[in-house]
Fold this protein.
Amino acid sequence: MSDSAFAAAFGLVLARDPALVEIVVLSLRVTLSAVVIACAIGLPLGAGLALARFPGRGAVIVLVNALMGLPPVVAGLVLYIVLSRSGPLGDLGLLFTPTAMILAQAVLILPIVTALTRQTVEDLWEEYREQLISLGSSRGRAIPTLLWDARFSLTTAVLAGFGRASAEVGAVLIVGGNIAGYTRTMTTAIALETSRGDLALALGLGIVLLAITLALNAGAYGSAQLGARLAGRGADA
Amino acid sequence: MDRSRIRRTILAAAVALLPFATPGVAQERFITVASTTSTVNSGLFEAILPAFTEETGIGVRVVSQGTGQALETGRRGDADVVFVHSRPAEEQFVAEGYGVARIPVMYNDFVVVGPQADPAGIAGGSDSVAALAAIAQARALFASRGDDSGTHQAEKRLWEAAGVSPEGSWYRETGSGMGTTLNIAAEMPAYALTDRGTWLSFENKADLEILVEGDRRLFNQYGVILVSPERHPHVKADDARAFIDWLVSPEGQGAIAGYTIGGEQLFFPNADEPGA
């Protein structure tokens, strides 16, 4: 079984099957777009939440933390009802499109990016508070500074979001429909091949997905290391 | 802190990620078809759709669901065409005004599969109702779709004919598609009702084999319905009609008849059969 799965995985990669390439490209496009959207909102939101003081802040933090556990199938279903032709945004005709899948994954990982950013920035703020205040920086002004200083720690938040998005199947299956050549991603293809009983091919696809995730994480880690070293050298000079 | 460097980094990251955020190039002219796992998992659409798309320039996006869910997708207006197999549910869909008309396309048949050991002793028979009664009598494991699909509805009709209300620890509802249910049945092992197309293309049969087949009650008719453009004005009625017309044309019917797995024909076109 596992032998034939590895054989299937190598066969898929070696053959450069155009259908597989299409699936991989779509998976990356959907997931990375979702990560970009979630970061554009989640990083400033998380930092703001770390510094802002308002009544009910504790409740908001608990809510954001809890939403990290939002089940993908629930996120998918809610978005399905919203985007359906019979739903409030039906006129956009977005159901069963890659855009719907991007939205679903962005909704899923926004709480993860926000919550992890909040924690990271809050810790950093405690550390630098005196300094920044003595320099005359207001809390609002401090946000970009803190995000920039925390950038290497924040890669973990971004990677956690990426991991969640690339691994999930429940949400993209519901709002994307697993349409061949259009909304079929790695995870929905794995689900389909499993239901066809072709377990070796399904596991082969799983191995390819894991290899891609590994490569992306290695790339992110490597560039963070390199960036940290360069930044360190810049500070010395 | 160097603000211009921050700005440059952010800009570079945004530019690098831009290709991923833009919508991809997709076929502009297309219809959406809500169909069943049996037609998609068996590979039928992959085999016949390219000919239609080449001839007409209309892409066909197939969403595979159970019959119940596919009809619901049509009701909500999220598909232009519904292509399913449960005549009573299809006729109700049309009667409620969600569909224009139900048109018969093809049939295949259901078979009862089960473990070679055959604890209920049903092998070789062709009476599906007697076979299910024997399974219930023996309290042998039976894996049911339990998902309101066309296959599940057919199964429920057979239990009713056998005078059995299936319940108890021997009756397992998987709540899943046909392939997943067969995976579960192979593992238990359990008896199951499956359409022949999914069975022939299924690759994890393990110990399972066909035990009962050839019963007229196991006949599995597929129908195609245009979702009502009156109810849902955005339905692409012209292109959807072109697809339905092609399915029942000699060419479409020939493509369906020509699809085989291991030399065995999976679906039998019968658009010209009255009352199908």
Summary: DSSP finds eleven helices and twelve strands in chain B.
